[in-house]
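User: Run a structure prediction on this.
Assistant: Running it now.
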Amino acid sequence: MFISIDKVKRESAGKRKFSILIPTWNNLEYLKLCISSIRKNSFFKHQIIVHVNEGKDGSLDWIKEQDDIDYSYSKENIGVCYALNICRTMVDTDYILYMNDDMYACPDCDKVLNDEIEKIGHKYFFLSSTVIEPVTLNNCTIEKDYGTDIKTFDEKKLLTEFASLTMHDWSGATWPPNIVHKDVWDLIGGYSIEFTPGMYSDPDFSMKLWLAGVRIFKGVSASRVYHFGSVSVKRVKQNKGYYTFVAKWGLTQNTFSKYFLRRGEQYTGPLKEPSLAKTKKLNNIFKQLKAAFYREPA
């Protein structure tokens, strides 16, 4: 099926720091909150680029009314990989920050990322903000309940407490919000469309960065966002990204995250090449062979 895309760029005034890419899919109330938090809590002025999938809930009409937001639109839901790559064609700044539409940006999360970028002093890095979620089993995430949906969201309490929640800088930046230099994005070819609509596209992006020589994968503790918990993912028919990842790279996403990215461990500096045990290598070879013969059920 041919994908038809509309794109609209607004007139901009003044210098902008990051280009914030937000794919959205019939998620208007969360999108409004996300955009509001960026406008209200950012230290810098940013270019905001939204890709609207379908827009049947009024999100397309709402975006059209926002004269400070660039946007693209597809009549069908084309997933996050296509959406992010389309948004990239509209980027005007040096840095691309990918954010989900069901996230709330806490005050100065952008300044903290910019300070980190300036300390690094070069473009070969991948940074993530630290996510706060009401329930999580993820060791990269802070568990604290400020609401599981729009109706129960306690913005005032979040703004009072978010900076005091305990967390360390962590290794293995992968998930959004994440930020990369546009030259590095282009070097690795953006997000891989074979993972459409998007599951496992994040670790795939990190793997491509790894192969390009990036070794700074850092989750920045002081840059914080609240996440309601994959609102869109719960509605979409998910791709079998596990098998695609294994067949493509010859190892599982878990092996890559644990032994290469050391995800969730306290950050100690640029990563080093891992040494995998023979049994681990053989196990991954077996899984690659299994993935090569995997066929999705009809």
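Residues 8 and 71 are 5 Å apart (CA to CA).
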